[in-house]
Amino acid sequence: MPKYVTIGYGDRAGYDKTPEDIRNAAHKHDRQLLDEGALLGIAGTPVQVRNTLDAKVETTSGAFMSSSLPVAGFAIIEAEDLSAAIRSASKAPCAVAYGVVEVWPLEQSR
């Protein structure tokens, strides 16, 4: 079955103003995904890594990309197709709590 990477963006303010029953349903959905074998996580502090021409590893603390909302979490899910992955992502806490979830098809390296 195809795999998808989802990246959730959201902040505490949006989460807090979302009705508790909607938040609880979103967390229940996440627990169901975990039970089905999905990999879910809360975003920590990112580190940028560069190693131009394999000559010197350089790191910079912080995100490379910026958004009006911080990255809040991620998941790797399986779904029948992109439409099914979008339906699943639409139930995530970030999607229902004034945030957004990106869905990226995960194409296998060969």
Q: Can you characterise this structure?
A:
The protein has helices spanning 12-17, 20-35, 82-89, 93-96, and strands spanning 3-9, 39-42, 47-50, 58-61, 71-78, 100-106. It is an alpha+beta fold and 110 residues long. The longest helix has 16 residues, at 20-35. β3 (47-50) and β4 (58-61) form a beta hairpin.
Detail the topology: elements first, then pairings.
Layout: E1 3-9, H1 12-17, H2 20-35, E2 39-42, E3 47-50, E4 58-61, E5 71-78, H3 82-89, H4 93-96, E6 100-106
Antiparallel strand pairs: 1-5, 1-6, 2-5, 3-4
Q: How would you state the average pLDDT, rounded? A: 95
- Radius of gyration from the alpha-carbon trace, in angstroms: 16 Å
CATH superfamily: Dimeric alpha+beta barrel
Tally of structural domains: 1
Major sheet: arrangement of strands:
2-5-1-6
Strand content: 25-35%
Query: Percentage of helical residues?
Result: 25-40%
Structural class, judged by helices and strands? alpha+beta
Distance N terminus to C terminus? 17 Å
What is the CATH third-level topology name? Alpha-Beta Plaits
Number of helices: 4
